[in-house]
Amino acid sequence: MFKNVAAICLHLVGPLWGKKTGASLTQCFHQTLTMAKRLQARRLDGIDYNPWVEFIKLSSEDDIVNLGQGFPDFPPPAFAVEAFQHAVSGDFMLNQYTTAFGYPPLTRILASFFGKLLGQEINPRKNVLVTMGAYGALFTAFQALVDEGDEVIIIEPFFDCYEPMTLMAGGRPVFVSLKPSPTRDGELDSCSDWQLDPVELASKFTSRTKALILNTPSNPLGKVFSRAELELVASLCQQHDVVCIADEVYQWLVYDGYQHVSIASLPGMWDRTLTIGSAGKTFSATGWKVGWVLGPGRLLKHLHTVHQNSIFHCPTQTQAAVAESFEREQLHFGQPSSYFVQFQQASQRSRDHVMRSLQSVGLRPIIPQGSYFLITDISELKSKMPDLPGATDEPYDSRFVKWMIKNKGLGAIPVSIFYSAPHRKHFDHYIRICFVKDESTLQAMDKKLQKWKDELGP
């Protein structure tokens, strides 16, 4: 082998022989051997491409109304901003480390606040972990519980990080799709019409199933799973001894009288459920990156192990601001003065505004029951413009979004990215819109849509 390497090296440096190159034969050997090694870990195979990078870049151009990314483009509530200012300018020790698994005032208020909602006595030290956003909570959960060969059931459409996080942990994603009911003429479809097939769901559980991830209210669909649906999932998880990872970051944003039910509150489910929340989504401060996991000590102790051997600690000041914000919200909970009540009402008005606007250009929004998002059916436009530019294997919704950004100045996200590869072609006629936006953004959207409507003609 070394003779071959030497031959390669001599071939490379031969033309420079006798010149002052500054590289010895020994250095050449070292560089050749180093460059021949595999650089990336195998856990990264197949997950290096992230569509968000491409679509966020396209939507960041001047004069593009960005309805793709899921963040509010308006300030957090005044009390949350003031809490952050207190944390930055007050006690200087908040510039230092706090307890590794969470700032004690925050873990205490989370335990108190959610203990009442879940009907549990939550120990702030054993049953709460503060993480780098809900994203960090998800990653920590997968790394702590999913082993090589374990199966994880993922309900489609799904928040797209679930699949790569499963793969990075060595697990195998097992997909089950929500099935939409046939379209009714003259009516808008609702995400409540997208249902799990109980027989199909049951068939996905095997002796290798380790976890099921449940997102309610869901991203991108906006579906709020009913109690009956949750009881089905709970029954199967208990029957097959499966952990439920409950992603509930949009729990305060539920519309039209629907009710959010935490699956951990159902009989027998606390002991096998990790409930994940987000201060960013709760207080409209996504950049704070404060999330949490609630669950039984027998599960949380393994997440603690991952946490202490990875990030170890989350920023103290943002945790302090979230703690103060929750303390304020606990005093106003359920009252008209509650931010959760006010934010839900404002978000529902924005949702209705966006749905009306999308309908004006022939799109068919699916009415969401909750979350920041709705998906809209672009089938009519697909039939009129079937041959948009793009690679032959690129899903239609992806090509449509790129066309819409370039030609209409409106950014969105293709729904096919929220599906497993075999199912994308069946759901490539939907795009995702974020409606939790400032009034000025919605007005800018309206202007773009009105121009589009004028171009379509009568």
TrEMBL record:
GO terms for molecular function: cysteine-S-conjugate beta-lyase activity; glutamine-phenylpyruvate transaminase activity; kynurenine-oxoglutarate transaminase activity; pyridoxal phosphate binding. Keywords: Aminotransferase, Cytoplasm, Lyase, Pyridoxal phosphate, Signal, Transferase. Coiled coil: none annotated. Residues 63-443 form the Aminotransferase class I/classII large domain. Its EC number is 2.6.1.64, 2.6.1.7, 4.4.1.13. It is found in: Cytoplasm, Cytosol. Pathway: Amino-acid degradation; L-kynurenine degradation; kynurenate from L-kynurenine: step 1/2. It holds the Pfam family Aminotran_1_2. It catalyses: an S-substituted L-cysteine + H2O = a thiol + pyruvate + NH4(+); 3-phenylpyruvate + L-glutamine = 2-oxoglutaramate + L-phenylalanine; L-kynurenine + 2-oxoglutarate = kynurenate + L-glutamate + H2O. Its cofactor is pyridoxal 5'-phosphate. CDD domains: AAT_like (cd00609). It comes from the Eukaryota. GO terms for cellular component: cytosol; mitochondrion. Belongs to the class-I pyridoxal-phosphate-dependent aminotransferase family. Homodimer. This is Kynurenine--oxoglutarate transaminase 1. It comes from Equus asinus (Donkey). The lineage of its organism: Eukaryota, Metazoa, Chordata, Craniata, Vertebrata. The gene is KYAT1.
